[in-house]
Amino acid sequence: MAITALAINCTLKQSPASSSCDLLLRQSLAELEKLGVKGELVRAADHTIKPGVTSDEGDGDEWPAIRARVLAADILILGTPIWLGHQSSICQRVLERLNAFLGEMDDQGRMVSYGRVAGVAVVGNEDGAHHVCAELFQGLNDCGFTIPANSCTYWVGEAMHGTDFKELNETPEKVVQTTAAMARNCLHLARLLKESQYPGDPDA
Hints:
- This protein has 204 residues and is α/β, with parallel strands linked by helices.
- The chain has one domain (4-195): Rossmann fold (3-Layer(aba) Sandwich).
- It is 35% helix and 18% strand.
- The protein is built from five helices and six strands; from the N terminus they run βαβαββαβαβα.
- Strand 1 (4-9), helix 1 and strand 2 form a beta-alpha-beta unit.
């Protein structure tokens, strides 16, 4: 059973700037690859994602192509840095665009995002990882994604210090273990949903 993954990096930096979020997402995709999952990475800041809550906000909007890649994947990993205790503004915009799924149904009355699982990757040098994960989990669940057990991985440095995740000499073992667990659990649930989709609306 082929399972695919898409990771969206919501750093505020455009390519080719280095990104701690990019590093953690690549590590997440590498763990999935070990399990036979083919994945790809998108940096949201490299694209014009217009504000709004529809799937297509008109001329110049590059979200529709990203949306198509989200729906083509079985697993979505949403990655963000922490800014002022919250997810990045770009990450919030991605969630707002995913919000369109609430009004988009398949022929059985299910949201078009049903049957897909989501995980979260968070980096920062301040407190707030659990808060950000909670916000993203709720938003992703509202938009039709299923959240596996322990489907977040994160690293936060000591508060008020300037060290970034990408500057570490090696990834802490606990982060490695957490990332691997997220990959395993996302794959497990994605396989189950692929075999047995959510029931449709009998009145649809």
